[in-house]
C-alpha cells in the first residue's frame, strides 16, 4: 500500500484534499470517484515520521480491543463502533489509525484489510486474527482473545523491563560516582600530596593516573560512547549482526536461560492464540516467526515451517532445530496427536511465563548483593587509595 496526497472537487464545486492509502493511483481515483470526488491532483505523499515512527503502546491497544469487543458483542454497527472509539481514544496515534480504518471501512474495505494498512497500530498477528474472526462470524470472540493476548504479552515485557531497571540504575550510579570522584575529588588530593612532598603508594598513583586520563579523555569518551552505540545499532540491523548478537545473548550465563524461556513463552502464546482463532498453521508459523523477537528463534521457526509444509508433523521439525526444550516439543506432539494443539500451547505458555517470573526473581536476588558489593569495592577502593598517603604522613608525624 502507498500513501497518496490528493486534491479534488466535489459535485458542488468545493475543493477537498487529504491523504489516503491505496494499492495504485488508479485504485485511489476509482475510490474517490465512488465518493463523487473529481481528482485534480494526485501524488505520492511525503512521509513526515520517517524512521522515527513508533508503535502504538500495547496497553492502549489492549484497552481499545476490549472495548471494541464489547461494542461488537452488544450489536453496534462496525462503523459506529470505530467512530465512537476514535473519539474517545486518548492515544492520538491510535485514535488517528482508528479514524483511518473507519474511513476505509465506509469505503467498502474489510476491517482486517483496513487495519493491515496501519502496521504501526495493528501488526500482522492482529490483522490475521481479525480476518479469521470476520470470516467465521466470531469477531467479538476473536477480539476478546486478542485483548487477553496483548495484555499477557505486555505483562511479560513489563517483567523483563522491571528486572533490567535495578541493575541499569545501579551501574549508571556507579559510573557517575566514579567519574565525579576522578574528575573533581582526586585532583584536590593530588595537589595536596604534591605540596606535602609525600611518597605515594602504588594504589594512590594508579588512581591519580586514572584521574588524569579521565580529565583528558572525557570528551573522547563521550563521543566514543555515542559512536559505539550508533555503530552497534547499525550492526544489529544487519541480518548477520542480529543473528550473532541474539545467539550470544541466548548463550550468556544467567540472562541466556531467561531469554530462552521468554522466547518459548511468546512462541507458544502467539501460535496458540492464532490457531484457536482459526488461522492456518503455516500462516500462524509465519506470523509467529516475525514476532519472535530473536533472530535464532525466528530462523528455527521458519526452518520448521518448511518441513511442516512438506507434510511432516509439527513437533518433529521443532525438535530438530535444537532451540526448543525437549519438554516443549513433547507436549506439542501430545497436543497434535490429541487434536488440542491450541490448548496445549496455551498451557505451555502459562508454564513458561511462571518460569520467567521465578527466574527473574532469582536473578534479582543474586544481582542485588553482587551490585552493591561491586559499587562498594570500586568507590571504597578509590577512597582508601587517596587516604593511604595521609595515614603514612600521620604515622611519621606521630
Can you describe this structure in just a few lines?
This protein is mainly α and 398 residues long. It has helices at 25-34, 58-73, 78-88, 92-106, 111-116, 124-136, 139-196, 202-236, 239-251, 255-276, 281-290, 295-309, 315-320, 326-338, 341-397, and strands at residues 2-10, 15-22, 37-44.
Describe the overall structure.
The relative contact order is 0.08. The chain is extended and about 100 Å long. 75% of the residues lie in helices and 6% in strands. The protein folds into 3 domains: 2-48, Ubiquitin-like (UB roll), CATH 3.10.20; 56-151, Receptor-associated Protein; 155-398, Receptor-associated Protein (Up-down Bundle), CATH 1.20.81. By secondary structure, it is mainly alpha-helical.
Jot down its keywords.
single chain, Receptor-associated Protein, Ubiquitin-like (UB roll), mainly alpha, 3-stranded antiparallel β-sheet, 398 residues
The H-level CATH homologous superfamily of the largest domain, spelled out, is: Type II secretion system (T2SS), domain F
Instruction: List unreliable stretches of 5+ residues.
Output: 47-52
Strand order in the sheet with the most strands? 2-1-3
CATH architecture descriptor name of the largest domain: Up-down Bundle
Q: Tell me, what is the CATH class of the largest domain?
A: Mainly Alpha
| Mean pLDDT over all positions | 83
| Shape by Cα distribution | extended
Rounded to an integer, what's the Rg over CA atoms? 29 Å
Give the DSSP E fraction (strand runs of 2 or more residues).
5-15%
Q: The CATH topology of the largest domain, please? A: Receptor-associated Protein
Task: Tell me the domain tally.
Answer: 3
Amino acid at each position: 500500500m502507498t500513501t497518496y496526497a490528493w486534491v479534488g472537487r466535489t459535485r458542488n464545486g468545493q475543493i477537498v484534499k487529504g491523504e489516503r492509502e491505496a494499492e495504485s493511483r488508479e485504485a485511489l481515483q476509482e475510490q474517490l470517484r465512488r465518493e463523487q470526488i473529481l481528482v485534480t491532483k494526485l501524488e505520492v505523499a511525503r512521509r513526515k515520521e520517517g524512521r522515527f515512527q513508533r508503535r502504538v503502546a500495547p496497553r492502549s491497544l489492549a484497552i481499545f480491543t476490549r472495548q471494541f469487543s464489547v461494542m461488537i458483542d452488544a450489536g453496534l454497527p462496525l462503523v459506529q463502533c470505530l467512530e465512537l472509539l476514535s473519539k474517545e481514544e486518548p492515544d492520538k496515534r491510535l485514535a488517528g489509525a482508528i479514524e483511518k480504518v473507519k474511513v476505509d471501512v465506509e469505503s467498502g474495505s474489510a476491517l482486517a484489510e483496513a487495519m493491515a494498512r496501519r502496521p504501526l497500530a495493528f501488526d500482522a498477528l492482529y490483522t490475521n486474527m481479525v480476518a479469521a474472526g470476520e470470516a467465521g462470524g466470531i469477531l467479538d470472540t476473536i477480539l476478546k482473545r486478542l485483548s487477553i493476548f496483548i495484555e499477557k504479552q505486555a505483562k511479560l515485557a513489563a517483567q523483563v523491563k522491571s528486572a533490567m531497571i535495578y541493575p541499569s540504575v545501579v551501574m549508571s550510579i556507579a559510573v557517575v560516582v566514579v567519574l565525579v570522584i576522578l574528575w573533581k575529588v582526586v585532583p584536590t588530593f593530588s595537589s595536596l600530596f604534591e605540596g606535602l612532598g609525600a611518597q605515594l603508594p602504588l594504589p594512590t598513583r594508579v588512581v591519580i593516573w586514572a584521574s588524569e586520563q579521565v580529565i583528558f579523555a572525557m570528551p573522547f569518551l563521550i563521543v566514543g560512547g555515542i559512536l559505539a552505540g550508533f555503530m552497534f545499532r547499525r550492526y544489529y540491523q544487519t541480518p548477520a549482526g542480529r543473528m550473532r548478537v541474539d545467539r550470544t545473548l541466548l548463550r550468556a550465563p544467567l540472562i541466556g536461560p531467561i531469554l530462552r524461556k521468554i522466547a518459548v513463552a511468546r512462541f507458544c502464546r502467539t501460535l496458540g492464540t492464532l490457531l484457536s482463532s482459526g488461522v492456518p498453521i503455516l500462516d500462524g508459523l509465519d506470523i509467529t516467526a516475525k514476532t519472535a523477537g530473536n533472530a535464532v528463534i525466528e530462523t528455527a521457526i521458519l526452518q520448521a515451517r518448511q518441513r511442516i509444509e512438506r507434510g511432516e508433523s509439527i513437533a518433529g521439525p521443532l525438535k530438530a532445530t535444537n532451540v526448543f526444550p525437549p519438554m516443549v516439543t513433547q507436549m506439542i506432539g501430545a497436543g497434535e496427536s490429541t487434536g488440542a494443539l491450541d490448548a496445549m500451547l496455551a498451557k505451555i505458555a502459562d508454564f513458561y511465563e511462571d518460569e520467567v517470573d521465578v527466574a527473574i526473581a532469582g536473578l534479582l536476588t543474586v544481582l542485588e548483593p553482587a551490585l552493591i558489593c561491586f559499587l562498594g569495592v570500586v568507590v571504597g577502593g578509590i577512597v582508601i587509595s587517596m587516604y593511604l598517603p595521609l595515614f603514612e604522613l600521620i604515622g611519621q608525624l606521630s
